[in-house]
Amino acid sequence: MAVLRAGLIGLGMMGRHHARVLRSLDGVELVAVADPGGDPHGVSNGLGVLASAKELVAAGIDMAVVAVPTIFHEEVALTLAAAGVHTLVEKPLAPDVEAARRIVKAFEDAGLVGAVGHIERYNPSLQSLRARLEQGELGAIYQLATRRQGPFPNRIADVGVVKDLATHDIDSTAWVTGSRFVSVSARTAYKSGREHEDLVAAVGALEDGTITNHLVNWLSPMKERVTIVTGEKGTFVADTLTADLTFYSNGSVPTTWDQIAKFRGVTEGDVVRFAIPKPEPLMTEDAAFRDAILGKRSDVVTMAQGLATVGVAEACIRSAQQGVTVSVDELV
């Protein structure tokens, strides 16, 4: 396997984990790190801490991971694209659709691999869920609901809960179902005194007719990460905190209790929690990025998909501001 010279810019919470993973990946050598704010977690491991993307490029890198705050994504990504560096940008791709479009165009024009770090795609529970849905184990899909709740992370200052947290669910919903969002209706709240929203409730419609529902906040003392898919044959529940996938099948045993039997819905059937391999999602993500650069088959989140996710997020914010349902096609 060819050895790719890797650079990392942004040495905060996500950057430190990327540094660890990049150092452990076969065929990859982490040769340069950069962060104008220094190295708060001590991950440079003997490498000099550079101050900018230009200095990172000057170190002679083939690939880069961008883990800087969202407001700097466009500037850093365009610098790397101009230098011919394959790049993975942490989610969201950009703070707005216009910036995301410019990033997508720069990487497409340069013929480079551009990826987005939507790490939930690589959670074992969602990977298994998607495979089972593709195999028809649920039959027709009716509804997908997510809940992503927890305390406020002090490290996030430049975007609200929609673009920081809800983009996880927007991306994974479209990916798991294989269908894009066509419209959203959302409501937001501002409860913590910040300029950005810290709570959102959104209802979406996918192109294939699936109805989605997303509850996301930074206001809950407990942490929850759940995706529930209901369909023709039952319900899948993916818990991405524990990486568990459970299937609740529709019952096949006739109901003899008259009062319940009159209800024409489904009944409770068998419950199965699947035993699935549980590799670290970040390891799977960075390995997929490496493989894409090497021309191997891989499942990266493309920058075009990252752009679509930013568009849905902006549709949620616009919907909340205007009190109307917003067509995603109007924004992307």
From TrEMBL:
Pfam families (UniProt xref): GFO_IDH_MocA, GFO_IDH_MocA_C3
Q: Outline the extent of the Gfo/Idh/MocA-like oxidoreductase N-terminal domain.
A: 5-118
Q: Which Gene3D superfamilies match?
A: Dihydrodipicolinate Reductase, domain 2, NAD(P)-binding Rossmann-like Domain
GFO/IDH/MocA-like oxidoreductase domain residues:
127-236
Superkingdom of the source? Bacteria
Return the InterPro entries for the record.
Answer: Gfo/Idh/MocA-like_OxRdtase_N, Gfo/Idh/MocA_Oxidoreductases, GFO_IDH_MocA-like_dom, NAD(P)-bd_dom_sf
Q: What is the name of the protein in this document?
A: Gfo/Idh/MocA family oxidoreductase
Q: Which organism is it from?
A: Motilibacter deserti
